[in-house]
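User: Here's a chain of 254 residues. Predict its fold as tokens.
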Amino acid sequence: MKAIIIEDEARAADRLQKLVLELNPNLAFYQTLATVEDSVLFFRSKSQPDVVFMDVELADGRSFEIFRQVEVNAPVIFTTAYDQFALDAFKHNGVDYLLKPIRREELQKALEKVTHSKTKEIDYDKLAEAVERRSKKYIQRFLVRFADQLINLDVDDVLFFQIRDGAVYAQTASGGAFPVDFSLEQLEKKLDPEQFYRINRKAIVAMKGIHKMYAYSRSRVKIEVIKGELLEPVVSTDRSGAFKKWLEDDLSID
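Assistant: Prediction complete.
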């Protein structure tokens, strides 16, 4: 089987290709394309691949424009950070619509659909509902107290959570640290595990919050965060192996 990735972010394309090859080592890739224009030229000059991995937002417009200019017969797995394009995607050869960050098990199911499903059998409404549920699976924001105010805190702004003085605080990229009304155990269930990792009994760290890492005793890792102070910055012994795997995979595709 041959595949092509249409994605304007090189890092995201590289990570997607690596994940796909881990799931299907026999898949061969054409070059990665980053624009609508280059994609149109590809489909006009090359034979159709067996599957297309396509972001919705490209460098020069939305990928749906490709279908208006050239015939694409291959099944398409759409990859995007936005859920509002689901129905359009399914109407353009879409066999699945994966929301970023892409999860390994969902990618596996999408690849199975390419092999076993026919596009015309897709129930658009049912799949759109599934996309909506998936996009709301993890907490996106929550209220925090600041003096006598209540602030709506966006999870994307959080670098890490930690226990301090008996309470859980969220350190933000904008500089503030705010108490939250959740325990770390509750946060573990509410946060996207591909973006956040509990490094020890006192802290949960966001992937984007890590600035540097250092080798520590007994094969552990010491973390330096980009802002704020992590009071217990060492990954516990029992979590070190899984933490390194989490870092290696970097399962989020931006």
